[in-house]
Amino acid sequence: MHYKNITRRTFLRTTAAGVLASALPGCTSRTLTRPNTPAVSFGICADVHKDLVPDADQHLAEFITEANKRNVDFVIQLGDFCRPYDKNKKFLDIYHSFQGPAYHVLGNHDTDGGFTREQTLAFWNSPAKYYSFDCNGVHFVVLDGNDIKPNRAPGYPRYIGPEQQDWLARDLAATNLPTITFSHQSLNASDDHIENAAELRAILELANKPKRKILASFNGHEHADYVETINGIHYVNINSTSYQWLGGSYQAKRFSPEIEKEYPYISYTAPYRESIYAFVTIHPDHSIRIEGKTTEFIPPTPADLNHPNANTKRSTPKISNRTLT
């Protein structure tokens, strides 16, 4: 990681989140050194799933190589990235080979195997479960959707608790900059959203009064490609870099016996032939351009297997090009 240009404002925000400011990578003024360029650009990927797919290193390396080539201001991964095993250090090094700030969002699978969120963050060298930073006139907020809800239902947590909500409200009140939020689970109205997503949307919508401040909220988790706009805020689902989940009734063997044995869950997925990711540009007029990527499934495809999600936004090997205003 790179720890440049950390402002006093970033220090106060970071310490308020309970971490040292020196742990937070600042956004360099890379854009300002490029004439005739938009205000901010960044690379974004989601749900690489190092611990589930055999070609995660290649997928990530392609993304980082392209991000360095484009000289974007920063990169961010939206969770379900890798667990804190020593064997994953090489994978993590690929991500941190980006020649600028490389940010992390916690996913629900990043603590599989009995790890805590703190252990995963320490392995990633990431500053906190939730934090914010400024980059060339835009404010960015990273949220953690894995808080533990009191009396919650079984399954993975999908919740943002009162302490984090209070921090978010204070953080948004302290900036006048146009703002983007990132989370693993969605804040929209989908089935897989954070359980109290409506409470979070209310905080964002309040920050948009009297004038618009929150431009968009990006998430992963759903392995889906779509945008939902609610009360003027765009909720952007970034598709998985690696695959679609199909489940046990749609199992298929696509790789060698050795790979299938080492990665026993890969047969329950519809893997992508190439990695997919996106590059996002925030223009001075606050319009957002998303440049995605399209590949194809390694057969048999979800349609070949008669999966109910075949040919829907939840089963497509692409991230669409979009312009949001």
UniProtKB/TrEMBL annotation:
Domain Calcineurin-like phosphoesterase per the UniProt entry, residue ranges: 42-224
Chain segments carrying region Disordered: 299-325
Compositional bias ranges of the Polar residues kind: 308-325
InterPro entries per record: Calcineurin-like_PHP, Metallo-depent_PP-like, STPP_CPPED1, TAT_signal
Molecular-function GO term, any one: hydrolase activity
PANTHER family hit by this protein: METALLOPHOSPHOESTERASE, CALCINEURIN SUPERFAMILY (PTHR43143), SERINE_THREONINE-PROTEIN PHOSPHATASE CPPED1 (PTHR43143:SF1)
Protein name: Phosphodiesterase, family
